Amino acid sequence: MRSALVILSFLAMLASGFWAYRENYATKVALREAQRLGADIGRLQEAIAVQRAEWAYLNRPDRLAELASANFDRLGLLSMLPEQFAETRQLPEPAADPLANGLDGVAIVSAEDEDLLP
Amino acid sequence: MSPRAPLRPLARILDARARGENPDAIEAANIRDRNAAMHDKSRARAESRLLLLVMAFCAAFLTIGIRMAALAGAEPDEPRAIVSGSRIQAQRADIVDRNGNVLATNLVTHALYSHPRDMVDPERAARELARIFPDMDEDRLLKQFTGKSAFLWLRRKLSPEQMQAVHDIGEPGLLFGPREMRLYPNGKLAAHVLGGASFGAEGVHSAEVIGVAGIEKALDDRLRSPDQLDQPLRLSLDLSVQAAIAEVLHTGMKLLNARGAASILMDAQTGEVLAMVSLPDFDPNDRPLPPTAGDPADSPIFNRALQGVYELGSVMKIFPVAQALELGLMNPDTMVNSSSPMQLGRFRVRDYRNYGPQLSVTDVIVKSSNVGTARVAAQVGPVRQQAFLKELGLLDASPVELIEAARARPLLPRKWSDIAAATISYGHGMSTSPMQLAAAYAAMVNGGYKVTPTLIKREAPPPRGAPVISERTSAQLRDMLRKVVEKGTARMAEVPGYHIGGKTGTADKQKPTGGYHKDKVMANFAGAFPMNDPRYVIVVSLDEPVETSGTEARRTAGWTAVPVTAEILRRVAPLLGLRPAEVEAHVPSKVTAVRN
């Protein structure tokens, strides 16, 4: 009886020693990983800051104005002016409801609306 | 201790002899008992000693074991794992406009320094550096590298290409230190508001970034406060509006050959500044040094909208009229003597041209009569006039959040005499800046309560300021200011559908030596739109403009500041989401016509 207890506790000691050893190294690995991730986050944040700055730089109003005038032939962009506001009643009638014509939807775009499409 | 028992007790011996037994057996039994007792005693002592020894060994082994476990468990990399990571970035908060567009942010870069004692080939390093940076002198570098110094700063900011080039030299004595630098991606836009930043205390591994002017300096503590680093500072400026005003103002300034120009667009209810432009401007990424000689107003870093303290001219006429209406001294139809010139002590007050013997108060404003305004001011009196202008904030430095604001104090007469009151009524004899003027006009048109100008976006509508004039007076003033545009000096400001109203002002510029220039003016326009319910106050100021399309040069605000204002209004009102009222323009038949 007594010797069995001694053997058991000896085995338990061995097991707990092994467990502690493994936990110790697992913790070290996890810490290294956390540190690596932290550094990664720092690098990514730095990259995001650069991208944000670049986005703001590329979207600065004077560059956009230059681009709009350089591509006027294709885009026809002008500054917003008071004349561009319109009343709802000035808009053309919306195209007929596609579902009203059945699901094959042949008549979605009527002939007179065609020039509205790009 | 019990007394030692005799081995041969006489009584028992005699008894044994009498019974014929051997008395030696008694002695032997007694000796045996005594030995057993002695044995027990020494055994107990040995056992207690052993126990003590076991305990001592246990304590020793336990101590060593715990110490070993502590050493095995406590690795020094644990605190490092917490420090490293996300928090290295950004030692200064970003600045964004009211819609979240970036106005100022940080960029990681590197500084270049050297340890000359670690250099392998100083001649080559000096030669290569001079090749990469044309502004560095090879001979001077070589002298520094071969001199006594152990440490040398070479450059504060490097571009990635330059850094790679320096890297390629392969010199171990050339080292890089990480830096964060302030970047203004929009260049010159809102330069005077942002100001600029520069390095403070510098070390090898980092450097402080401190604001040197504008809002960067005024709110330096907020921008650097560690708990608000990840929350950008949201200004009240609108990037597109600011850009549109800057563009129109720049064109106007060039067309009219003006030396400079300034404009402010302010929310009439909250005092938020949506745009603040001062031309000529500068690039805050490369802020010029302040001028050491000459007129500070000639430097691009001079903020004309705030530091440009000038006599503003007739735009000030609205204030004595407002006061006279508020005090009940007059109503808009009261007739005022306007015969020019008016004798006032040694002075004569003249009008631009003679407007006849008398004008109604409304016409005094519409035609901009100096004499009429001086008569109105005479009824109000200097003491009340001064108190009113003070209440409007025209006599104090502007509370706006720029470091330059506190130093730009209005220039006031030493003695507020009757003559001073008369000249101040039409905008001479007292100098103030467009910023104060915009805030005062906001109070005139918004229903009569004071606004505090600010460059920070207000998250909630601020509590109403103190009432300065009544709602009724404010409505009468709006009506007058609208009439100035409809049939007065500012007819060119009309943009159909936006109901702008305002007042022109053309002030002769003062000579530094005293007196006034004959052909140099400040042309100003201050107004608000839409006049039936003013939402925005606009101030436009041009320095020495001249309009030369006609046969003679025209300098009045009606020909200079007013058309510029109209163009600004045309560009900016749609950006602000204001749709024109009752515009009977052509009706586009197709939606494509609207898309352009």
Q: Into which percent range does the helicity of residues of chain B fall?
A: 25-40%
- Number of separate strands of chain B: 18
Main pleated sheet of chain A: none
* Structural category of chain B: alpha+beta
- Main sheet specs of chain B: 5 strands, mixed
Number of DSSP strand runs of chain A: 0
Mean pLDDT of chain B, nearest integer? 87
User: Which outline of chain A best applies?
Assistant: elongated
User: What class would the helix/strand composition of chain A place it in?
Assistant: mainly alpha
CATH architecture of the largest domain in chain B: 3-Layer(aba) Sandwich
Terminal-residue CA separation of chain A? 94 Å
N- and C-termini, Cα separation of chain B: 124 Å
Looking at CATH, which topology of the largest domain in chain B would you report?
A: Beta-lactamase
Beta-sheet strand percentage of chain B? 15-25%
How many independent structural domains of chain A? 1
Helix content of chain A: 55-70%
Offer a concise description of the structure:
Chain B: Pfam families: PBP_dimer, Transpeptidase. With 118 residues, chain A is an all-alpha fold. Chain A has helices at residues 2-58, 61-70, 72-75.
What does this structure look like?
The complex is a heterodimer of chains A (118) and B (596). Chain A has 118 residues and is mainly alpha-helical. Chain A has one domain. Helices cover 60% and strands 0% of the residues of chain A. Chain A is built from three helices and no strands. The longest helix of chain A has 57 residues, at 2-58. Chain B is an alpha+beta fold and 596 residues long. Chain B folds into two domains: 89-234, Penicillin-binding protein 2a (Domain 2) (Alpha-Beta Complex); 240-290 and 305-575, DD-peptidase/beta-lactamase superfamily (Beta-lactamase). Chain B has helices spanning 10-19, 23-73, 77-83, 122-132, 138-146, 160-169, 191-194, 214-218, 220-224, 239-255, 318-326, 361-367, 370-380, 382-391, 418-425, 434-445, 471-487, 561-575, 591-595; strands at residues 95-96, 102-114, 152-158, 174-183, 196-202, 207-213, 233-234, 260-267, 273-279, 310-311, 335-337, 342-344, 347-349, 358-360, 431-432, 501-510, 516-529, 536-543. Mean pLDDT of chain B is 87; it is low at 78-88 and 583-596. Chain B: The chain crosses the membrane at residues 50-70. Chain B: Pfam families: PBP_dimer (PF03717), Transpeptidase (PF00905). Chain B: This is Cell division protein FtsI (Penicillin-binding protein 3). Chain B: Residues 88-225 form the Penicillin-binding protein dimerisation domain.
